[in-house]
């Protein structure tokens, strides 16, 4: 028999034993987007350890740099609960997406999954959300890297010039064609950011006062176990923490390039375990020693000398993060354009022209967004509320419901799980509306206070300096 999951997804021959309850058996690899064929480029080269490191680099770099400032707004206890709660949900949603992808033929991205459950119109909507999401977080990586160059040079050049330099570097790195090649970069990238954050954590514990606080006389330290934020400030901080682990839709294209897609869960559990423990430990220590004087990105929290050391060590990781975000978005466009063409896996002029056009266009869009919103935590909060909430929280809830419709009339515990997934969709709607309102209001207020200058200006808008 044959199966077709949507426009542009090839029908594949399938034995009756490989399908159960309308799902494709995960052990059958014949429906993979990238085929292993002689004379074609082999994209299926990523092992599960490499995949886990790619996932770590997608999640870890930018998220850990904004959580301490979010904890100041929420307080240490609510902040810690948010870190644990959101990371649990993000892990759960990552597993749902992987299971769905391995159960339905031809799914390369979250947009393909949307097509399975909602048809062509939903695929296009989700595809746009996916591209906007990773353009925004790509912009955050470019902003973070340009902030690093600003710190290392003591603001020796126009901020926008640094952003342009970083964008060119990101474009070149993102244009590496296969995740296997980028995987080797992610080892160095993850290590550099992890060490950089650790340097700052040690650095803040060695100071009598936070670096940004008055160094003489009385001052307000600003440490709270439970904060008292306004709705706007609270939702922005919650969205930032959620965003720090919500990039799970970027995991999906990686599965298509794994040697054994069934190993996906092992990669996710290893990644999210390290991320959750690191986020909680690093952010609580930095907030405990810096209070309200924590910087965003947090690498600037331990004084000028430590800031330069940390940014010098972490610069590679920030660039690799931005490169991954741009690569994932570009790979989505690339596969959509060439999926039904021999050029998808051929070393042809068309193949390379389309691929480089995709990475260049996404890098340029990231540059434009970064030039318009140069405050790091606002970029991440905007991504968390506007796009990640429906993409990484709401849609996975419905994917689970689609594959487990029998739970609605099942045993009591199955009915409970069924409606908990509907509740997760409701949470995504609330975070999308409330979080987006909060972030947009904060951005408007920041422009009014002069914290964000006009786009393409040479002013240093980083609040980490």
Automatic annotation (TrEMBL):
Identification of the protein by name: Transmembrane amino acid transporter
Annotated spans, Disordered: 1-23
Keyword Membrane among record annotations: yes
Origin organism lineage: Eukaryota, Fungi, Dikarya, Ascomycota, Pezizomycotina
Family stated for the protein in its record: Belongs to the amino acid/polyamine transporter 2 family.
Record field: transmembrane: 45-67, 125-145, 157-176, 182-204, 268-289, 309-328, 349-369, 375-401, 413-433
Membrane topology value: Multi-pass membrane protein
Recorded GO MF terms: L-amino acid transmembrane transporter activity
Species for this entry: Microdochium trichocladiopsis
Domain of life: Eukaryota
Boundaries of every Amino acid transporter transmembrane domain copy: 45-440
Pfam families linked to this entry: Aa_trans
Gene Ontology CC annotation, any one: membrane
PANTHER family given in the database record: AMINO ACID PERMEASE, PUTATIVE-RELATED, AMINO ACID TRANSPORTER
Annotated keywords: Membrane, Transmembrane, Transmembrane helix
Subcellular location: Membrane
């Amino acid at each position: 028999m044959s199966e077709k999951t949507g426009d542009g997804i090839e029908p594949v021959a399938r034995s009756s034993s490989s399908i159960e309850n309308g799902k494709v058996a995960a052990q059958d690899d014949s429906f993979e987007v990238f085929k292993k064929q002689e004379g074609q480029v082999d994209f299926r080269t990523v092992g599960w350890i490499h995949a886990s490191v790619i996932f770590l680099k997608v999640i870890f770099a930018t998220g850990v740099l904004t959580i301490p400032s979010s904890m100041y707004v929420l307080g240490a206890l609510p902040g810690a609960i948010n870190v644990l709660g959101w990371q649990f949900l993000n892990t759960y949603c990552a597993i749902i997406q992987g299971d769905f992808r391995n159960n339905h033929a031809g799914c390369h991205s979250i947009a393909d999954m949307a097509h399975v459950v909602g048809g062509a119109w939903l695929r296009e909507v989700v595809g746009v959300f996916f591209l906007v999401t990773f353009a925004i977080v790509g912009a955050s990586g470019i902003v973070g890297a340009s902030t690093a160059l600003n710190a290392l040079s003591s603001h020796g050049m126009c901020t926008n010039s640094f952003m342009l330099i970083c964008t060119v570097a990101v474009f070149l790195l993102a244009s590496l064609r296969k995740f296997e090649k980028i995987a080797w970069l992610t080892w160095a990238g993850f290590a550099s950011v992890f060490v950089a954050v650790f340097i700052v954590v040690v650095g803040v514990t060695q100071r009598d006062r936070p670096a940004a606080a008055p160094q003489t006389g009385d001052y307000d330290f600003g440490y709270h176990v439970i904060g008292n934020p306004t709705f706007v400030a609270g939702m922005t901080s919650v969205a930032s923490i959620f965003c720090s682990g919500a990039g799970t839709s970027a995991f999906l294209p990686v599965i298509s390039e794994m040697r054994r897609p069934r190993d996906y869960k092992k990669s996710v559990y290893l990644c999210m375990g390290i991320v959750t423990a690191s986020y909680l430990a690093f952010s609580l220590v930095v907030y405990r020693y810096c209070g309200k004087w924590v910087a965003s990105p947090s690498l600037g929290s331990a004084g000028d000398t430590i800031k330069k050391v940390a940014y010098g060590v972490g610069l590679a990781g920030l660039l690799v993060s931005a490169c991954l975000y741009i690569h994932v978005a570009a790979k989505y466009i690339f596969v959509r354009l060439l999926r039904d063409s021999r050029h998808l896996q051929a070393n042809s002029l068309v193949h390379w022209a389309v691929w480089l056009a995709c990475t260049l266009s996404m890098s340029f869009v990231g540059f434009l967004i970064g030039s318009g919103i140069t405050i790091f935590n606002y970029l991440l909060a905007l991504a968390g509320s506007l796009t990640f909430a429906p993409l990484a929280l709401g849609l996975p809830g419905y994917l689970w419901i689609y594959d487990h419709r029998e739970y609605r009339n099942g045993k009591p515990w199955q009915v409970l799980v069924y409606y908990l997934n509907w509740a997760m969709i409701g949470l995504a709607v609330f975070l999308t509306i409330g979080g987006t309102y909060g972030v947009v209001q904060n951005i408007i207020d920041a422009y009014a206070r002069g914290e964000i200058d006009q786009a393409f200006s040479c002013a240093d808008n980083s609040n980490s300096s």
